[in-house]
Amino acid sequence: MDVRSLGYVVIESTEPKKWLEYGRDILGLMPATTMPDDGNVYLRMDERPFRFAIVKGERDRLRCCGWELRDQGDFDAALTQFAEAGVAVTVADDSTAKARRVKGLASLQDPSGNGIEVYWGAELDYARFVSPLGIRGFETGFNGDMGFGHAVLPASRLAETHTFYKELMGFGDSDYMHFKFSPDPDDKGQGLHFMHVNNPRHHSLALYEDQENSLGCVHLMVEVHEVDEVGYCLDRVEAAGIPVVSSLGRHTNDHMLSFYMATPTGFAMEFGTGGLKMEWDNFTPTVTSLPSLWGHKFAMPE
Question: Which family does it belong to (predicted)?
Fold first, then answer.
């Protein structure tokens, strides 16, 4: 399976308007003017009609990640592979695919219950991206081919879920970390797999060993081009009284300079710059024991 990028996320929210204000006034995303006025909130950052869809629901959670395939041939082959592996897949009707602005769409779940949509034929409407906050651009590659950023998802069945993405969906390993949060010698710790797809971004997905996560997400990441934009965003977050989940820092494995903040849904958002762009030919996956070169002091909001 040839997954090209993390194209979008769908977030379920009891109050989608909070995401409109947060996305526009804190992240600097643009309300999507070419999407229908259907009561949902759509936010864009580049040539794509939207990258974040926030839909009205009875709970607050990440509903699914949308993974882009190259073309219809790859999409049809993916459906065959899922069927042969015994994975239940629902192929969307034309109206649902049209609502996502794609040619073909199917939904499923990974072994830990995280929602997945795979699609092909994503529309580029080329409506000019104008950040309400003057951000010149977000790092999404050529015509958005690097995706909007990355997602870190909870994996209650880490080994099985890692195998699912690697052997069935064709993701590659980038890095692995293992954390212990106590000096107890019997503390088995928690694993964290960083995985890439067919673009230069160091990781588009990470799987965190987490048995209890009602939000369906640990964090999402968006990347800007300029370091000052990270500082400006941090100022906005502090002025708005939004909890800072992690202080400014630079990660070891992808060199991202970033900080983390709370979102209206409760999971975190990493806002960063300077992430590595990789060449995957002959790459050897790494095992990293230190998550950050400096900074990134985490303090989860109460």
Answer: Belongs to the extradiol ring-cleavage dioxygenase family.
Cα distance between residue 149 and residue 60, in whole Å? 21
Give dist(CA 245, CA 297) in Å, integer. Answer: 8
Residues 151 and 226 in one domain: yes
121 close to 72: Cβ distance less than 8 angstroms: yes
Q: Tally the domains of the chain.
A: 2
Q: Which pTM does this prediction carry?
A: 0.95
Instruction: Express each pLDDT in 262-295 by its tens digit.
Output: 999 999 999 999 999 999 999 999 999 999 999 9
Same-domain check for residues 282 and 152 = yes
The two three-digit tokens of residue 275, written as one number = 């992430």
Same domain, 152 and 90: no
Sequence letter at residue 158: L
CB of 202 closer than 8 Å to CB of 250: no
